[in-house]
Amino acid sequence: MTLPKNIASLAIDAQPTFCEGGGLGVAGGHAIMPKINQIRSQTEKGYWTQDWHPAGHSSFASTHGRAPFTTASMINGQIVADGTPGAYTQKLWTDHGIQGTAEAELHPDLVVRAGDMVVKKGTNPLIDSYSCVFENDKVTHPRFPNGNSVTDQLRTDGIDTVVVSGIALDVCVRDGACDLRDEGFRVVVVLDATAAITPEGQAATLDLFKKKGVEVTTLDQLASYFNPPSVTAAPRGPVNDP
Ligand SMILES: [Zn+2]
């Protein structure tokens, strides 16, 4: 551990289902796992999120016989006509993160330490959950096995700063980081320990982070990011007595 103990690691959806070959594979997913381990090794506390959907989840295109990566208007997990009052827009994904499948487990390359906490999200078949703070209804919370929301648990543990990594930068990392910032946490995203679905999505996410005050750094800068080298005072000349 090199970072002060008010700073914790939070790795978002570091699961094979979001890596190359997974149900919703993101390029560069497998390669970030050692970097997530390096972040984790620098903090006292570590938190992990896990996308954990029942089969036939309402966010899956296959559930509705639709094409993936399209959008649909929905109310309570059911597709309704566009323009229906009260409807929200849901992006329809390929099947991913299905409870009980090997690819929905945390990535086998990760070093999860004793005492680390894992919050599962997307467990309600009718509501998607990108952010680990709020489900997509922006009302209900994903919860740790002890019943705490992520923000309650972080505050209980004395954490005011989170170092965020994971997949996908332009969906679940984005929403989790922004919600944590809105809740008053200092949020630092380690960009090279994330993977984005598209370059356009990454660019839009970085713009949003700037607006929200979500900070961005890289793994090799992490330690010095929180402990900048102190500025050395200029050497003084001899004091001349008058
Ligand atoms: Zn999902």
Question: Would you mind describing this structure in some detail?
Answer:
By secondary structure, the chain is of the alpha/beta class. The protein is built from six helices and nine strands; from the N terminus they run βαβαββββαβαβαβα. It has helices spanning 33-40, 61-64, 150-156, 169-182, 199-212, 222-226, and strands at 7-12, 46-51, 71-75, 78-79, 88-91, 117-121, 161-167, 186-195, 215-217. The strands form two sheets. It has a six-stranded parallel β-sheet with strand order 6-2-1-7-8-9. A three-stranded antiparallel β-sheet has the order 4-3-5, with no helix packed on it. Helix 4 (169-182) runs parallel beside helix 5. The termini are far apart. The model has no long low-confidence stretch (mean pLDDT 95). Zinc ion (ZN) binds next to loops.
* Order of SSEs: EHEHEEEEHEHEHEH
Tally the helices. Answer: 6
Oligomer class: single chain
User: Helix- and strand-based class?
Assistant: alpha/beta
Q: Please outline the major beta sheet.
A: 6 strands, parallel
- What name goes with the CATH superfamily of the largest domain? Isochorismatase-like
Q: In angstroms, what separates the terminal alpha carbons?
A: 52 Å
> Residue share in helices?
10-25%
Secondary-structure arrangement, i.e. CATH architecture of the largest domain: 3-Layer(aba) Sandwich
User: Which sequence of strands runs across the widest sheet?
Assistant: 6-2-1-7-8-9
**The top level CATH class name of the largest domain:** Alpha Beta
